[in-house]
Amino acid sequence: MRMKAMLTAIAVAAVGCAAGKLTAQVAPAARVGGFPISVGVGMSGYYLDYGPGRWMEGPVIRAGVGLYHGLGVDFSARSIFMNTPSELTRMQQNTFLAGAFYDAPHIGRVHPFVRFSGGLGTIEFPSRNPLYTRDSYTVYAAGGGVEYQLTRKAALRAEYEYQFWKDFQSPRYLNPQGVTLGVNYYLRGRHVRPHHQ
Fold first, then answer.
1. How many angstroms separate the CA atoms of 163 and 186, rounded?
2. Residues 124-133: contacts with CB under 8 Å, at least 24 apart
């Protein structure tokens, strides 16, 4: 089940990259010079908001396309399945999200950003009913963070995200939240927008 989730995550990111490349080819190159396309990987640590011992980890992959003056779209796939607390007999939270981001003008090598997204979440959980141990929900998420530019094409990325799992087994929301540390690679190099613009 975990391997299937990881393969799905990789497929989502690949589709995102392909979509970004197709979009960039349509734009007038003389005017915009090609859209900045990025791909990234990271490790997340998340507070589950479910049951006892609520902290777990897992990998995330993402792909993004900058469109206009710091605005862009991106896609992410995350699977939180590592270090399941002993108090939980089973637990895995996966999200597949698409959304919009704003990449603020840089301050030195630091690029602040905010991100809003939505999509699908799947969860495996302990249950007394052996036929009901997995479900899926609509998920919304808001987050932000910074990238630290190492080279024109590579950056370290740190992000905080707060999720809203709609109508989780009741009229309430499940609210996992966590931090991700990773790296981002810009296929064409990053276009730098000075802070004074």
1. 26
2. 124/1, 124/90, 124/91, 124/92, 125/50, 125/51, 125/88, 125/90, 125/91, 126/51, 126/88, 126/89, 126/90, 126/91, 133/90
Categorize the per-residue pLDDT at 101 as very low, low, confident or very high, splitting at 50, 70 and 90: very high
Q: Around Cβ 107, how many Cβ atoms within 10 Å?
A: 11
102-120 confidence digits (pLDDT tens): 999 989 999 999 999 999 9
CA triple 171-52-123, angle to 5 deg: 50
Residues 87-96 pLDDT 10s? 888 899 999 9
pTM beyond 0.90: the answer is no
Task: Give the three-state DSSP class for 52.
Answer: coil
The whole-angstrom separation of Cα 30 and Cα 77 is 33
CB neighbourhood size of 13 (10 A): 22
Candidates 91, 117, 110, 119; CA nearest to 9 is 119
Residue 80: Cβ within 10 Å count:
25
Average pLDDT over residues 139-165: 96
Rounded CA Rg of the chain? 18
CA–CA separation, 77 vs 92, rounded Å? 13
Q: Report the range of poorest mean pLDDT among 48-52, 57-61, 174-178.
A: 48-52
Question: Hey, what domains does the chain have and what are their CATH numbers?
Answer: 2-186 (2.40.160.20)
